[in-house]
Design brief:
The complex is a heterodimer. Chain A contains 14 helices and two strands. The relative contact order of chain A is 0.13. By secondary structure, chain A is mainly alpha-helical. Chain B has helices at 10-36, 55-61, 69-97, 105-117, 120-133, 143-165, 170-177, 182-211, 226-236, 241-271. Chain B contains ten helices and no strands. By secondary structure, chain B is mainly alpha-helical. The chains are: A mainly alpha, B mainly alpha.
């Protein structure tokens, strides 16, 4: 088989995937950019080149508040998923000794991921609600005398649901990085008199960085673009950038939604670029 | 040989307790809605249980105030199956292509990564706008299918990378030396070896599509898929019928995973 022949083979094999990305990713994103400069009235969108969508968006203090709120959700979710995800991955990778048990416990963490996100979100309602389990338990124990109102339909509920949904996205890549760490490095650290804690800090943590970066990229981008969790769990009391876009879509204000989308996309890309400086993803595969 | 066990450090017990709490955190809420879906006919959305019945499951299959559960379920099922088949075939082809360097390979790779990190609602908005501008009617089998594929392809491709990085090409060389054609090599050597991973890709892509909400929002056209239906119910329905739906779809997901695992086990046995 000649070299040029095999190259043609590669092109043939990659074409379907490349086409789908071109038609359903690249062209739609370009469409969003183009439409963000269009005009609109109550009924339709009008091809044009105006900057009003952006000047209105960036000039409004509401936008800045919404971005601040979205960053708050992303930062809190990131911190909690990282803390929990790292601890869980560390336990699975270094304290569970047999491979079989590692696989079993890992599967246990993965199973809830296979059910619908929306179902997992609403499953917090009977737990957090005014008459929910948590309030009843706390009142029964005499810790509080009136139900806590902040549990459901609040920022607390949004972050809790996000952590519930996305911690696995941290566990998987961090666990993967940890499993690649040469165990003799840890023995060497121990032989040199390092405590478990300093081994963790100076050996395991730096070597888990690629996993942490990949998990962070996933969690942060998902939370930045999210609108369902915010709408369902805040009960419409809070907003996020994604929710703003979905509201504009609902009102058929497509050019305004497109402008918001472009700004969101740029923000997400900046965050991802910053995180990618920490890790070469292709090496991780 | 006697097994000598190193004594577990105190940290182990602390971490094990942490892990147990994490598992409780993952499953607790799901168990609550599972139990609450068996509420009696007069029961509400929270505890206490007001009797025990299948009332809300029966109710689910009767005419609903919002939309139709059966139709949206069938659409999601068909869409998920189409996405599954397309993703398995296309990811396998792409995985094979990436085993050699070719011009544009980095571009396709970064498109896949971009597809993974671009917020889902932007895909929905972009495809919706595109169809709107060209006055094409969006449908679950056209626009929504494309939108879902942008979500499942990256996962499929990354899994194929993981597979082919550990794949020994000398098996193929041996097949060729024995006179097998390219197609025969793929059909009788490569495919059987990667089959379990392809089932993984299938499982992944089916559930991703079956649960996908944001990418379906503007692309499904006038007929809902199941996640859209569920979402509609969360804003309109205030009875445990919602939990019954949650329980049913969860059970369905588990059946699908069970079947997939069964298939993997069967393949392994046949190989052994």
């Amino acid at each position: 088989m000649s070299a040029s022949n095999s190259k043609r083979g590669s092109y043939f094999l990659i074409t379907p995937m490349a086409l789908v990305f071109a038609i359903f990713l690249v062209i739609p994103l370009l469409t969003i950019v183009v439409v963000s400069f269009w005009d609109y009235d109550e009924y339709r969108i009008l091809p044009d080149f105006i900057l009003e969508n952006y000047s209105y968006l960036l000039g409004s203090s509401v936008t800045w508040q919404i971005y601040l709120n979205t960053f708050k959700y992303a930062a809190l979710t990131w911190a909690f998923t990282l803390g929990i995800g790292f601890t869980v991955a560390y336990f699975l990778a270094f304290h569970v000794r047999s491979l079989t048990w590692q696989i079993i416990l890992f599967m246990v963490c993965t199973i809830p991921f296979w059910t619908s996100n929306i179902i997992r979100m609403i499953s917090w309602i009977p737990f957090l609600g005014r008459n929910g389990l948590l309030n009843q338990a706390l009142m029964g124990a005499g810790i509080i005398h009136e139900p806590l109102e902040f549990l459901l339909f609040s920022d607390f509920a949004v972050v809790l649901a996000d952590v519930h949904l996305y911690t696995l996205f941290m566990v998987v890549p961090i666990f993967n990085s940890m499993m690649r760490i040469d165990r003799s490095l840890i023995e060497a650290a121990r032989d040199n008199g390092a405590s478990a804690w300093s081994t963790l800090r100076h050996v395991i943590l730096p070597l888990s960085k690629p996993g942490i970066a990949i998990g962070s990229i996933f969690v942060i981008t998902v939370v930045m673009g999210d609108f369902i969790t915010v709408r369902l769990m805040s009960g419409g009391q809070s907003a996020s950038v994604g929710l703003q876009i979905s509201n504009e879509i609902g009102l058929l204000q497509y050019p305004a939604a497109a402008a918001s989308a472009v700004v969101l996309l740029i923000t997400v890309l900046l965050i991802v670029t910053a995180l990618l400086r920490l890790v070469d993803i292709r090496k991780e595969l | 040989m006697a097994i000598t066990r190193e004594k577990r450090p105190a940290a182990f017990y602390f971490l094990a307790a942490f892990f147990a709490l994490f598992v409780l955190f993952l499953y607790g809420p799901m168990l609550t809605i599972f139990i609450l879906s068996f509420q009696g006919p007069n029961g509400g959305l929270t505890f206490p249980m007001n009797g025990f019945s299948f009332h809300w499951f029966v109710n689910l299959f009767q005419q609903q105030a919002v939309g139709d559960f059966g139709g949206s379920f069938m659409r999601s099922l068909k869409l998920g199956l189409i996405v599954m088949v397309v993703t398995v075939v296309v990811s396998f082809m792409a995985g094979m292509a990436f085993r050699r360097r070719f011009r544009g390979d980095t571009v396709v790779f970064y498109l896949a990564i971009a597809s993974l990190i671009v917020p889902s609602i932007l895909i929905s908005l972009g495809i919706g706008l595109l169809f709107n501008i060209f006055e094409i009617q969006p449908h679950w089998y056209s626009s929504a299918l494309g939108a879902h594929l942008t979500w499942t392809f990256p996962f499929g491709l990354l899994i194929m990378f993981a597979v082919f990085n550990r794949f020994d090409p000398s098996f193929e060389e041996a097949a060729r030396d024995l006179g097998a054609s390219n197609w025969q090599t793929v059909r009788h050597v490569v495919l059987p070896m990667v089959a379990p991973s392809l089932i993984g890709v299938a499982m992944f892509s089916f559930t991703l599509s079956y649960d996908e909400f944001a990418r379906t929002l503007m692309t499904a056209g006038s007929l809902n898929t199941l996640p859209l239906e569920i979402y509609g119910m969360t804003t309109n329905v205030t009875t445990p019928v919602l939990y019954a739906l949650g329980t049913l779809t969860t059970v369905f997901s588990f059946v699908v995973i069970g079947l997939a695992f069964g298939a993997v086990v069967l393949l392994r046995r046949r190989k052994a």
